[in-house]
Design goal:
CATH superfamily of the largest domain: Bira Bifunctional Protein, Domain 2
CATH class of the largest domain: Alpha Beta
Strand content: 15-25%
CATH topology of the largest domain: BirA Bifunctional Protein, domain 2
Bound molecules: 3,4-dihydroxyphenylalanine
């Protein structure tokens, strides 16, 4: 009887070898271990055997049945695997988790120069402060030595809210709050106040190539004992040479701002026309980039700092102008236009 099981085993193995599809496999399964399959039929033949023979033959058939079962399961798994591989080989070779055809976009040029300036000043020990765009009259004007009806307000008309607050016309509006925030550290711990505060400013402007109703500035202040104009000039020069990575022609001339005394205009030679004169520099060859000065005693007093003991400098860097100079943008209005054709050109590594 053992020849019979061997016969069926060999027949099964060669049939299995030829199997290519899941359907073939199912057919063979029924053919061998189905109700009327070859293996099942073998068991029926036991009836004619002696008890002793029944035992050994029965065991042999069971072993065969298990073998067939296992081989079929194994083959089923192999076929499945083959199908997956075939499916994969049909897939195009790209990362399907990537977003369709969208480009990654780029940072706005003003964001780029702002971050660069923040980095430069951070490395010199300045903190970077965030400040609200809606401020009070006190923050924007009164605390900066610009009382009501002061003519300096004429140049800084802005957008007023019904509650008397306004859209800030200058980042200087944060000065008073910053002085109050760090005054105790200055007086009690002898820690100088060193802070920059970049922000968006608004003015009621007639727009042209170099004026916009919305623009960015970055204010900076340093207050300590014995701060002088030399400290101011040092920080301004360091910042400009870092930003432009080359020597820039600058000039310092007197300028009036009620919150500094003395006050200066720090101009740089126009990088768009090389100092020849163009619409971007109002045909003067120079661009007012960073008005600055020594903080007025009244302004220090309003911030709770004794001007007899402490002095400081302040500057208001025109971030929008800086971006225009750095990237050669001729018209300030392009920066607020939202035109991707213009803004896409700027990346981190430029
Ligand atoms: N806030 C002034 C403006 O927007 C600019 C300015 C001038 C800021 C002199 C300063 C400064 O800190 O010292 O016109």
């Amino acid at each position: 009887m053992s020849e019979k099981t061997t016969e069926v085993r060999l027949a099964f193995l060669s049939a299995l070898e030829a199997v290519e599809t899941a359907e073939d496999l199912e057919r063979i399964r029924v053919e061998y271990i189905g109700k009327k399959g070859y293996v099942t039929e073998l068991l029926k033949e036991m009836k004619s055997l002696s008890n002793e023979e029944k035992k050994t033959f029965g065991q042999a058939v069971n072993v065969l049945k298990n073998e067939v079962n296992d081989a079929i399961a194994e083959k089923r798994e192999a076929l499945k695997q083959k199908e997956i591989e075939l499916e994969n080989s049909r897939m195009p070779e790209f990362d399907i988790s990537m977003p369709a055809t969208l480009s990654r976009g780029s940072y706005h040029p003003i964001t780029l120069v702002q971050r660069q300036c923040e980095e430069i000043f951070r490395s010199m020990g300045f903190t970077v402060e965030d400040y609200s765009e809606i401020v009070s009259d006190y923050e924007c004007f009164e605390s900066l030595n610009i009382p009501k009806n002061h003519p300096a307000r004429d140049m800084q008309d802005t957008y007023y809210l019904d509650n008397g607050q306004l859209l800030k016309t200058q980042t200087s509006a944060a000065q008073n709050t910053i002085y109050k925030k760090y005054r105790d550290q200055l007086v009690n711990e002898g820690k100088p106040i060193k802070a920059i505060f970049p922000g968006r400013c608004f003015r009621n402007e007639a727009t042209d190539a170099c004026h916009e109703n919305t623009f960015f500035q970055m204010e900076g202040v340093m207050v300590d004992k014995n701060i002088s104009i030399s400290n101011l000039i040092f920080f301004m020069k360091t910042m400009l040479s870092e930003v432009f990575q080359k020597d820039i022609k600058v000039r310092l001339r007197p300028g009036f701002f009620p919150f500094v005394e003395p006050g200066f205009e720090l101009d740089i030679s126009c990088l768009i026309c090389g100092g020849e004169g163009c619409p971007s520099c109002k045909h003067s060859g120079w661009l007012e980039l960073c008005p600055c000065g020594m903080i007025h005693p009244e302004v220090l007093k309003a911030g709770g700092i004794d001007p007899e003991e402490y002095t400081g400098f302040a500057f208001g860097l025109g971030l929008t102008r800086l971006a225009m100079m750095k990237y050669g943008v001729k018209d300030i209005r392009d920066l607020n236009s939202g035109s991707l054709k213009c803004l896409d050109q700027f990346t981190d590594d430029k």
